[in-house]
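Q: Can I see a sequence and its folded structure?
A: Here is a first one.
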Amino acid sequence: MDPVGPSTLDVGGMGVAYDERPGGTPIVMLHGLTATRRYVVHGSTLLPREGYRTLAYDARGHGDTDPAPDGTYDYARLADDAAGVMDAAGIGRAVLMGVSMGSATALALALGRPERVAGLVIVTPAHRGAPSSNLAHWDALADGLEFGGVDGFLEAYGPPAAPERVRASIVTVMRQRMERHRHPAAVAAALRGVPRSAAFAGVDALRAIAVPTLIVASRDTMDAEHPLEVSREYERVIPGARLVVEDEGESPLAWRGGSLSRVVGAFLADADLGPGASATVVR
């Protein structure tokens, strides 16, 4: 099955880069801060092969998408963009699958415009409904990227919190990810803006989520920015939420695109959101 794209959608005058594969129930994929559309299911085509329509796009200023027309990077704009992408693609209601920043964006849309959201897949959440408590970290990364390019970003990030034998490989992956951005200054602006915003008003606000929700957590101790406890908090407050996490000693499920897609497909089928679900209305 060949993808449609990569192509561009006009969202409020901003060119948004996306890849789409045709099918039934739509799944809109939202990536994390400093990532691109490639880093949600990591190249897996399992979901479209199972019959889902998938659409993955680059957030404002990221990847091949234009910088923010108004220079603003916050969760309110990101949620508006997600709705705008759906409008431009002719999708009335969809399952939203988001990673980190993308997961908070998906929750903001589900809370603010619940009629647009049929289900949620929340992957490695970090957001507790308040601005970051570590703005100095994000500002340092932004300064490094803006004034030193990818090398400056990596220098500001510092050595990965990983065994020395794998650090070089991690740095290589980080470099490859950062080099995918056409507008580094826009990513730097996002690094300053998004952590200063809130997608919702505290974790307790998630009690209002009223759609089937899967939370994909991680035990990766090298990834301190996405602690398992945040996923467990989400599980406790979102009605009926289901949490999955890799077994001890396994590599993170969130980074294994095929395995992640299988878990998502099984969850959606159990939730009556399979490829032909009538619950998802497509305009």
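Q: Show me another, different protein.
A: A second, unrelated one:
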Amino acid sequence: MMHIGEEIVGYIFQNNIHELVIDLRNNGGGDLYAGLVLANALNLADPVDWKSGVYVLADKVTFSAATSNTALFRELLNAKIVGEPTGSNPTGFQDMDTFELPNSKLVICYSKRLFRIQEEFSEGVQPDIPLQYEWKSFSRGEDNMLQWVIEKIR
């Protein structure tokens, strides 16, 4: 992941990019720490407008590590969250693991760690700019949430 972060930062410098959009919609999660490595790399990208040029897209299908990274990117990258509240809470049990019951062979999934990314429990990470998917846009192959960010950047 560090190599990818370095490539992204190099691209940002080469192209003098001032705004970033990180799309975490429809993301079931994964590795919380991959997001932290990305945030660490991005902090070296001086051309980025850290005051108002970073956006994270989220929706009700943003879960687990993607939810935690949404909250962390708000804090670490000063990102504005655009879209819907995330589908899970960044404060709670996460980091799934499994084991198999010896006789029935049923696989049990459980969360093994308690994370406290926010001080208070909330119904998902609440967006700074609440937007719902619009069927009219979607049916035309358009993304109204991303379109909002593009218009804001212009």
